[in-house]
Structures are given as structure tokens and as C-alpha cells.
Amino acid sequence: MLGVALLGCGRIAVRHAELLSKGEISGARLVCVCDIDENRAKSFGEKYKVPYFTSLESMMDSHYNYIDIISILTPSGLHAKNTLEVAPYKKHIIVEKPMALTLDDADKMIEACDKYGIRLFVVKQNRYNLPVQKLREALESGRFGRLVMGSIRVRWCRDNSYYRQDSWRGTWAMDGGVFTNQASHHIDLLEWMLGDVESVFAKARTALSDIETEDTGVAVLKFKNGALGVIEATTATRPKDLEGSISILGENGSVEIGGFAVNEIRHWQFKDRLPSDDEVIEKYSVNPPNVYGFGHREYYLHVLDSIINNKKALVDGLEGRKSLELIIAMYESIETGKEVFLQFHPKKCRLGM
User: Fold this and answer.
1) Dihedral of CA 217/222/227/228: which sign?
2) How many CB atoms lie within 10 A of CB 26?
3) What is the spatial distance between Cα 279 and Cα 124, in angstroms, rounded to a whole number?
4) CA distance 217 to 220
5) How many CB atoms sit inside 10 A of residue 31's CB?
6) Sheet holding 243-250, edge to edge
């Protein structure tokens, strides 16, 4: 039984705490929580019946021997700083998306975890959604043939009340906009399915929200295998969430997964049909009750398996860095008005600044 501590008790921490405290993750349990806001830490500790702390140092002084994994769930702009603070304690680290806001910080996180001999896991739970797993299986088995195009659509509703929950939301220094926050999981899925990106051209605007960063944006991608990609993302959908979707088109087939959390197979069509295709849509078309989907549980089980059996992680620091580099390239394109070719060194991107 591995002990997990939560660093940060904000919105996403509820999802982690619910799973870890109610026995849904076989082999792991919530042992303590920490937040610099004492009221928030106390509320979490009392709700989930675990000790709470207001500093990393006090938590580690008290519960070092009970902790095997620390999940960093603080504001995005603190992920790198917190990882570098946690690494010397030699506990494995789970960090929520995005892993950092700059590539330099991401590299420092990877280097620190290597230095202290610990594992770094980046949360990309949508990879574990059952429809996404089926799509990946079809892709790996060659059913699509030559890939033609992939697209993602994130049409969610985040009004000003959401951004006012915390002062860091929607800022360049601590958060980023819809690309960095809400769409980062979907961008990761698109890159995971279609491979390395050659170049990107992006546009964005702040349509409805009172924030520094973008709430609406689009991007056109060219992948190294010749396929094209389209990213459409907004938090300006009104009056409520509409969808979070991915489509993959190839010479021999087309698949679209929709719903509002990439959990609902809408189209599953291949030239060479298999007997199992008839039941795919019926079996893998369940829309979850919220935008987090069903993937966090499977994600934690994968992390435990990777640690206990010393297996390669599906999304380690290097893999998490890939989608971060693409997002930063998108911001660089927005600022310069030019197509940006990866790999590159950002000069105009404001993310993390």
C-alpha cells in the first residue's frame, strides 16, 4: 500500500482526494494534504479524515515515512518550483498538467528527478479513457493506413466567476489560457495519435472573459508524417459545456470520439470491418458526469504499476514535455504571426513570464 500526499488543495485536488480516500485505487491511499491556505488545508483534511499541513517542510517532518508519492496539484505556475522543492525528499512525483509553463523549467524538473533517482509522472488521464484506448489500439494495429488529418475541439464554458475563484487563473505568469489549461489534455491526445509535429500556425483572442490570456484559439499543424492537424479551443461556449472531442482520419478509416470529456465514440468506420466493430459504439459511448472523465483512476493504477514493477511510464517527464513544447510553439506563433517549426527556442511567448 503506497501512501500519497497531496500538495495543493484546489479544484482538481478534489478529484484526486475522492479516488484516494474512498478505496477506489487499489494499492494506494491518501495519507495527508498540504496547502499554504490554512482554511483550505483544514477543510480538506477534515473532509477526507487525514492530517493537514500548511508547508511542505512540516508535512515531511511529520509524515516522511508514510509518503511514497507526492501529487503536485498547485497552480500551474508553481509546478516547476514545487517539483524542485519536493525532489530532494526522494519521493516519486505526480504533477498535474501542464507540467510547467516554460521549457527551461520542464527540463529542470526532469533533471532533478533523475538526479534524486525518483519517477516523474505527468497527469494525462484522458489517455486512459476506454474509447481513447480503443482508438490507440486501432492506430497501432495499422487500421487507419496512411494518416490524413486529426482534429480536436474543446468547447467548454468558463465564465468570469470561474476565473475569479483564484487570482492566478487566466494570467500569463501562473496559468496561461485555454490552450495551456483546458485544452492541454486534448492537444496531448492529438500529438499522441499523430506523432511528432513539424510546424504550427496559431491565432487566438480573448472573446468573453476578463483575463490576460486567450479564452479562444485555433491552430493548424503539420505533422512529420505528412498529416495535418486542427486545434479548436474555447472557454467562451455559452451557456454550458458543449464538447471535448478528437477525430482521426486515415486512408482506410475514420474515428470520432466526442462527449464533453473524450469518452463517447460517435463514429467508428473502417474499410476492412472486424466482427468486434459492431459492438464498439455501443460499449464505448458512455459520457461521464463531468469533464474529468473516467481516466484518473486508471492513471493512478498505471503509476502504481510503473513504480512497483519498475515499468516505463506512459507519460513521464519527457513525454509530458512534448505537448508543452507544442503549446509554447502555438503561443510563439500567435505573438509573431508566423508559422513556427519545432524544435525551437521561444523568443516572444509570454507563458510563464
Assistant:
1) positive
2) 11
3) 27
4) 11
5) 21
6) 264-270, 253-258, 243-250, 147-155, 228-234, 216-223, 197-205, 340-341
- pLDDT value at residue 283: 79
pLDDT, position 291: 47
What is the per-residue pLDDT for 95? 98
Q: Which three three-digit cell numbers place residue 75?
A: 497552480
Backbone φ and ψ for 346, nearest 5 degrees, come out as: -65, 140
**Stretches in the chain below the pLDDT threshold 50:** 291-292
Cell of 281: 459504439
Classified as helix, coil or strand, 227 is coil
CB atoms within 10 A of CB 84: 15
Strand partners, 236: 157
| Extended beta strands in the chain, E state | 2-7, 28-34, 52-53, 69-72, 92-95, 120-122, 147-155, 197-205, 216-223, 228-234, 243-250, 253-258, 264-270, 340-341
Whether this model's pTM surpasses 0.90: yes
Grid coordinates given for 198: 513539424
pLDDT for residue 289: 53
- Residue 317, pLDDT score: 97
With b for 16 or more beta-carbon neighbours within 10 A and e for fewer, the 119-146 pattern comes to bbbbbbbbbbbbbbebbeebbeeebbee
Query: Residue holding cell 522543492?
Result: 85
pLDDT recorded at residue 272: 93
- What's the rounded Cα separation, in Å, for the pair 312 and 121? 10
Q: How does pLDDT run across 8-21, given as a tens digit for each residue? A: 999 999 999 999 99
Q: Which H helix or E strand runs over 331?
A: helix 317-336
Q: What is the pLDDT of residue 260?
A: 83
Distances (CA, A) of 304 to 27, 74, 99, 197, 313: 7, 22, 19, 30, 10
